[in-house]
């Protein structure tokens, strides 16, 4: 992956900021990349993909893909792309169009996951507690086939 960036929807920017530990925030995640990766995994788990209409230009702005790679999320980006397209050739490092498509899929799952988080966290004072409860309920939820899904608790 080259110097591409993962964009954040403008209407989710404040939520993303509140999810990250920092000034004026008792967030849950150490970085924006961690929050976005968690949201993408949640969006995938709940099969919710939402296209970005307006993109945030300010804090948080687009995040370099290199940050996601350095944190080990390139595997998540690639897996989401393969599952979505059912085409393993989408992870070709030599195809710039494939990279663009991978990042778009990742952004859409992240945006869908942020919509879920916005609904789940509405009215919550302590995001840590609410996200922990969300993870516990997801861990014990069976999908339609009666199998348990993957464990999102790795992100905490």
Automatic annotation (TrEMBL):
Domain of life assignment: Bacteria
InterPro entries reported for this sequence: DNA_S_mod_dnd_assoc_4
Protein name, UniProt field: DNA phosphorothioation-associated protein 4
């Amino acid at each position: 992956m080259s110097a591409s960036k993962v964009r954040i929807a403008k209407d989710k920017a404040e939520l993303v900021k509140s999810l990250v530990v920092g000034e004026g925030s008792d967030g849950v995640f150490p970085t924006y990349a961690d929050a976005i990766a968690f949201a993408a995994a949640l969006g995938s788990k709940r099969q919710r993909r939402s296209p970005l209409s307006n993109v945030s230009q300010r804090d948080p702005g687009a995040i370099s893909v290199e940050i996601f790679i350095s944190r080990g999320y390139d595997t998540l980006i690639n897996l989401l792309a393969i599952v979505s397209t059912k085409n393993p050739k989408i992870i070709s490092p030599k195809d710039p169009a494939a990279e663009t498509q991978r990042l778009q899929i990742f952004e859409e799952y992240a945006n869908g996951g942020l919509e879920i988080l916005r609904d789940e966290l509405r009215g919550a004072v302590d995001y840590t507690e609410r996200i922990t409860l969300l993870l516990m309920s997801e861990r014990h939820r069976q999908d339609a086939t009666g199998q348990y899904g993957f464990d999102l608790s790795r992100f905490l």
